[in-house]
Amino acid sequence: MSATRVCALSELEQDTARRVEVDGVPMAVVLDGNGEVHAIGDTCTHGDISLSEGFVEGDTLECWAHGSAFSLSTGRPLNLPAYEPVPVYAVTIDGDDVLIDPAVRKEVN
After folding, report:
1. For the chain, what is the domain count?
2. Is it the case that residue 108 has pLDDT exceeding 70?
3. Which residue range forms the structural domain that includes residue 82?
4. What gap in Å lies between CA 85 and CA 22, rounded to an integer?
5. Which residues form the Rieske domain (predicted)?
6. In what order do the strands lie in the sheet with 55-57?
7. Beta-carbon-side half-sphere exposure of residue 30 (alpha carbons within 13 Å)
8. For position 33, which CATH number holds?
C-alpha cells in the first residue's frame, strides 16, 4: 500500500479530532496544540465508540462515552475503563496534504 491523502492540513482545526477512513480503516486525525498531526485508530477499545467524536486535550483524545483518554503519541489508554491501546499510524505532511498509510504503524517505545 501507499500513503493516501486524507485531508488538507489547512482543513484541520487545532485540538479537534477529525474522522477519516483509509482502505476501510477508520482513524482519528488530530492537529495538536504544538502543530503536530497525529493519526490513531478511531474506535475506542473499551466500546465500539468513535474517538473522533471525543475531546482533545494536550496529547490525549478522550472517548466521549466512557471517559478513557488515549495518548495521541502512543495509543495507550491513560485511564480506565479502556486497557488496550489503539493503533497509531505514521503521518506524512507533503505541502498542505496530510497523508497516511494504514499499513504503516508508527514505532512506539
Report:
1. 1
2. no
3. 4-105
4. 20
5. 4-100
6. 55-57, 60-62, 69-71
7. 31
8. 2.102.10.10
Average pLDDT, the chain: 94
Pairwise CA distance, residues 52 & 92, whole Å:
19
Q: Up-side HSE of residue 25: CA atoms within 13 Å toward CB?
A: 21
pTM over 0.90: yes
What whole-number distance in Å separates Cα of residue 88 and Cα of residue 34? 18
E strands of the chain, at which residues?
4-8, 17-22, 25-31, 37-41, 55-57, 60-62, 69-71, 88-94, 97-105
Instruction: Report pLDDT digits (tens) over 41-83.
Output: 999 999 989 999 999 999 999 999 999 999 999 999 999 999 9
Give me the pLDDT at residue 105, please.
81
Distance separating alpha carbons of residues 54 and 64, to the nearest angstrom:
5
Residues shown for the chain: 109
